[in-house]
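Following up on my earlier thread - several people asked me to post the actual chain instead of describing it. Fair enough. Here it is, all 128 residues.
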Amino acid sequence: QVHLVESGGGLVQAGGSLRLSCAASGLTFSRYAMGWFRQAPGKEREFVAAIRRSGASTYYADSVKDRFTISRDDAKNTVYLQMNSLKPEDTAVYYCAAVYAYSTAQPLGVSESEYDYWGQGTQVTVSS
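Reply from S.P.:
Thanks for posting it. Predicted structure:
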């Protein structure tokens, strides 16, 4: 059974930083592309960032580009989201997601429907 468990969320002041982690089990992690999504109160879940198998490339939503960095450690079955220069509008529940990638060249998904497995989420609150 596949499990994705996020951690690292919390309360931070605007301009601060947080690093989210997502530990995966029950799957061959190195064969999966990974993504981060978020859902703010009253809004739909939206794409944040994604990383290919082996970390060959990454992709970011415009709203977080140059502030957030996605990375992975296949030895630890973990994907990370380093969030810097946080803004109040970054407040949301953050979810990690996994999708089986047949090759490192498989395009990164930006919609929920493209992912196979999801974590339960971790709350990030940015105060002004």
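The mean pLDDT is 96. That should answer part of your original question.
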